[in-house]
Amino acid sequence: MTLLSKPLNGCARKQWTDSVPYTCYEIGHTWEPRCTIASLDTIRDSLKFSLKVYLTFYTVTGLVKLRNKKHRNLKEIRKLFRDVLQSSVFLSANGVLFMSSFCFFRHLFGKFYGWHGLLCGFVAGYFSLIIERKSRRGALALYLTNLSAEIIFRAAKSNGLVHTIPNGEVLLFSLASAGFMSLFRQRDGLPESIQTLVQYLVGKVEGHDPVTNEVKCSKVIPGRKTLLFLKKM
Predict the structure, then answer these.
(1) Closest alpha carbon to 104 in 41, 42, 18, 36
(2) 52, part of any domain
(3) What is the model's pTM?
(4) Which residues form a coiled coil (predicted)?
(5) Where are the alpha helices (DSSP H) in the chain?
């Protein structure tokens, strides 16, 4: 859809208080000239995409939790479907509210301004977060902070303000993994669903067990081959 949008000639040099002489059909919902129909199309496509994402996510975490007998009940299954629907509505509302406010403020002010996208993003983000569960708002805020930092870095790099470090992404990944595993080995360091999933991947000899509330640490026990190797040294 971006390729179908109107080219903003010279808009890169404009200030954020300047306006552009285009309609929301020309630079927004380019597949449909009517704002109402475009919003309905956004609702349909957003819900379809959101259900695919969160149904997969919650199904995987739910199957991991079902390994524990205390979670094998009808209440947990109902909670699983409720979480899928609530998170799907949250993600759909984010896209729908952005598109709807995009058209609404265009008709309200009569033009598009540089701050138009910020206003639409604030409206969509604020009201969609109200729909989502409070327990997930912190994780979403952390995720968006990561995206914001990446956008700021790319913008600074394109303007020549910063320079990349060779293999810097490897260093960043290593630091993030170390911090994540440090939280994994602490009590209440990670949410129970993530704790259970990571423990399923790395094994029960590491990390904090959410069932027994114990912190486990693997120990290297030298075998026969190891002792023979040490004797030769």
Answers:
(1) 36
(2) yes
(3) 0.61
(4) none
(5) 24-27, 35-65, 74-109, 116-131, 134-158, 168-184, 192-202, 224-232
Domain boundaries, position 98: 15-132
The pLDDT profile of the chain, 233 residues, written as one tens digit per residue, is: 444 444 444 445 556 567 777 888 888 888 988 989 999 999 999 999 999 988 888 888 777 777 777 777 788 888 888 888 988 998 899 889 999 998 898 888 888 887 888 888 889 888 888 888 887 777 787 777 878 888 888 888 888 888 888 888 888 889 888 887 888 777 777 777 677 777 777 766 555 555 555 555 554 444 444 444 444 44
Residue 102 included in any domain: yes
Report if residue 3 sits inside a domain. no
Q: Which two tokens stand for residue 74?
A: 């009808």
Residues forming a β-bridge with 19: 113
